[in-house]
Design a protein that fits this description.
Elements: E1 4-9, E2 12-17, H1 28-42, E3 49-54, H2 65-69, H3 76-88, H4 91-99, E4 104-108, E5 111-113, H5 115-122, E6 125-129, E7 133-135, H6 149-157, H7 159-168, E8 172-173, H8 174-180, E9 185-187, H9 192-204, H10 208-220, H11 226-241, H12 244-254
Parallel strand pairs: 2-3, 3-4, 4-6, 5-7, 6-9
Antiparallel strand pairs: 1-2, 7-8
Helix pairs in contact: 1-4, 6-7, 10-11
Length: about 260
């Protein structure tokens, strides 16, 4: 079985990390398949929402520590560039998720650990089972965070709480993660699949191009100056206003009916 399962139906692409025996740790095959699939989906107009999930009982346990153990016997001067390259290989996945002009949902059951936290944070919305947990855990194997966690986590929960997670490596429950602003929704574990499907269907029936522009606006706002952000708002609004979904939305509002968006 491949390390990533892909199912596309009803305008929703569901990507399932498929290494349950390793808690879906990021193998090289999984990295490659994930990037190739995300890049293909990015340009597939039939897909209007993406769901990320893990097979079995966990979302993702982060990096493949067993493969790391095979590398550490190398001399330090040779090992350092190997690991820099290995970490850089993750970055196109994060870039693609941020750039993608359609919403991405992380559906988290069990553990989201290490890079699993980063992958979840790269999604636009995170829904988690009430028994799920999040842990950076890098300090437990003697290294610092990667996969964009150091960028995303402080912006989501503040520098003090982010450092608490990174320096202590403790587990954070789904409810605590929601209370801190790290994730969006917590649902009973037995209802995670159904609630994820409900959320994905709602987004897949929405104005897809608008969602893409909205993602760009909010993520750019983290770096833009005030004037630059207002200029971008004007550009994004005007770009939406010439499209079919804007005409449909305005017409539906005037006619006092629910809009039927096509994503165009």
């Amino acid at each position: 079985m491949p390390d990533l399962l892909v199912d596309i139906r009803d305008s929703i692409a569901t990507l399932t990390f498929n290494r349950p025996e390793a808690r879906n740790a990021l193998s090289m095959e999984l990295r490659t398949m994930m990037l190739d699939t995300l890049q293909a989906i990015e340009h597939d107009d039939s897909v209007r929402c993406v769901v990320l999930r893990g097979a079995g009982d966990n979302f993702m346990a982060g990096g493949d520590v067993k493969s790391m153990a095979q590398l550490i016997q190398q001399p330090a001067d040779k090992l350092e560039p190997v690991y820099q390259n290995r970490i850089h290989e993750l970055h196109p996945i994060m870039y693609t998720m941020r750039r993608m002009g359609k919403p991405i949902i992380a559906s988290v059951a069990g553990a989201a650990a290490g890079a699993g936290v980063s992958v979840a944070l790269c999604a636009d919305l995170v829904i988690a089972a009430d028994d799920a947990f999040f842990t950076l855990a890098y300090c437990h194997i003697g290294t610092s965070p990667d996969g964009s966690a150091s960028f995303q986590l402080p912006r989501a929960i503040g520098i003090k709480k982010a450092l608490e997670m990174a320096l202590l490596g403790d587990r954070v429950s789904a409810q605590k993660a929601a209370d801190m602003g790290m994730i969006n929704f917590v649902v009973p574990a037995a209802e995670l699949e159904a609630e994820t499907a409900r959320l994905a269907t709602r987004l897949a029936n929405g104005p897809t191009h608008v969602y893409g522009n909205t993602k760009k606006l909010f993520y750019r706002s983290l770096e833009n100056e005030f004037e630059s952000q207002l200029q971008l708002e004007a550009e994004m609004f005007a770009d939406c206003a010439v499209r079919a979904d804007f005409r449909e939305g305005v017409t539906a509002f005037v006619e006092k009916r629910k809009a039927k968006f096509t994503g165009r």
